[in-house]
Amino acid sequence: MKHYDVFGIGNALVDILVPTEEAFLTKLGWTKGVMTLVDAEAQGKVLTALDSHKKELRSGGSAANTMIALANSGGTGTYTGKVTEDTYGEFYKQDMEKAGILFEVKPSNDGHTGTCVVLTTPDAERTMLTHLGISTTLTKHDLDLEKLKASSYSYVEGYLWDGPSTKEACVLTMEESKKAGVKVAFTYSDPFCVNRSREDFIRLTKEYCDLVFCNAEEAKALAGTSSKEDALKFVSSLCNHVMMTDGSNGAFAVEKGEIKHVSGFSVEKLLDTTGAGDCFAAGVLYGLTHGFTAERSAKWGNYVASRIVQEIGPRLSVRLMGRQEEILGK
């Protein structure tokens, strides 16, 4: 069987990117600049109202964005997420594989593929309306354990820790990874995920994780402190390898208790910070699966993140494969 750098698991959502005007948001009654979870009926009404607008589709979801950016860097991966046999589900598979990530999860014949309508106003503010759809029904039976065992890392997103079946899929991924000698990487995803499941996240980190991704706010939520430094020390006491992003301040790479600050890259024009953490994780995972030190991996992660914040949307328009030495030096 082919070897993969990363076995990713997370929500499978089709991003529907739509440039629009503030008046349209006002008319629909949505709050500008925030992400709102909506049901199928509300999402259907939004899409109907957008019928005449120009749209771009992208395969998405947080962990999926990481996997796609990993492939952009030159890494290999396979992704597990749930879609249905509808038009969006067919698009999702095709788009993931076009981006270089294998996607072979059997689609459901019921329900709707999850979608995230991303409304971008002229000031570059993004308003997101997310219908998780069938993605929340992912189960442990959707996992291809042979592909997991043929990977260097598994990568699990914290957003999955919301439903019983997706929790089971997370735990099985981590358990089977440990049995097979596959390293477990876990991203906390969002402070609200940490706040909802703090004790579970602490337990998962201690029992299973070889590598944790978080930002400063997520680390503070887990540690129950307002101190960034104390939060990083707390997470590092649970897991040997921690990568914590800190916005424009770059990132911190922790290896067996040794904390190193890794500076970021300058950004000419900041357009959209959405996806920065996903791309940082992609850069780190590429580095660690290609012989980079933790510090150099974090540096590459910072660079990939610095490129995505200069784009609208979570997909890089530049190809980074083979450019590591050019950008980072030997």
TrEMBL record:
Taxonomic lineage from the root: Bacteria, Pseudomonadati, Spirochaetota, Spirochaetia, Leptospirales
Keywords: Kinase, Transferase
Gene Ontology molecular functions: kinase activity
Taxonomy, superkingdom: Bacteria
Family indicated by similarity: Belongs to the carbohydrate kinase PfkB family.
Record's signal peptide: none
Taxonomic source organism: Leptospira semungkisensis
CDD domains: adenosine_kinase
Name of this chain's protein: Adenosine kinase
